[in-house]
Fold this protein.
Amino acid sequence: MIVDQAKSYVIILSMEIIIIIFFVVLFILVILGHSHNKQHEFVFINRKTRSKDCELLETVTSLERGTWAERDLVLDLLKNDIPAGAVFHDLYIKKPNGSFSQIDLVVATKVGLIVIEVKDYGGWIFGNGHNSQWTQGMRRGQKFRFYNPIMQNKRHIEELQKQSKQFKNLPFYSVIVFHGSCELKDISFVPKGTFVTSACRFLDVINLIINENEDANYTDKREVIRILKNAVENGNIPNIQEQHAEKVQDMLGKERVFA
């Protein structure tokens, strides 16, 4: 009798354990399924967002043109309600000597032309508006020198001003954007009309320029657009790109260093 009761008890206990295991497994499957659906939904949203970003970007430039940092700033401008027709990416300005000056971005606004130079660096950035060389400091103690981007963009603006008599009388604003993980550690002696910023403050600078300055006196807006569009089209000509790349390499002079 006692043996039979024990057997019954074991059978009932076994059934209860099986039922508990069943519901635990079922619960886990439900959770995993929900998580998979959420993950699938997240991936779908991301793909949809990327697709919209690509479509928006292509209203100004191609998906392969320039650097990803430049294209990211183009998207920022477009999402900040800057018209696509006012944003010009990767321009090649022809100089009197036949060579070309490459400009990352130009934005035509009611207050004048904003000329943007983009730098994609890590580490700490130290610079003085009067010095020809700036310094990039890395966490391991390494230091690298690079040409003063304020001076670099000043030359870009000077080349643009030579393209038209109208340009000589238009206000120009120089914006240096440091993209990437770098930190602007010590930047000083920035000239009036020039701005140095991290990518996260880029739109603040653009809005400041537009909101804090008087409207420019454009005498021929069609001419401005034509010149800027032609400069963008120059970048589609392979030999112009090659010529500019060779000039940059020659300027760096790495092939003349023997270590």
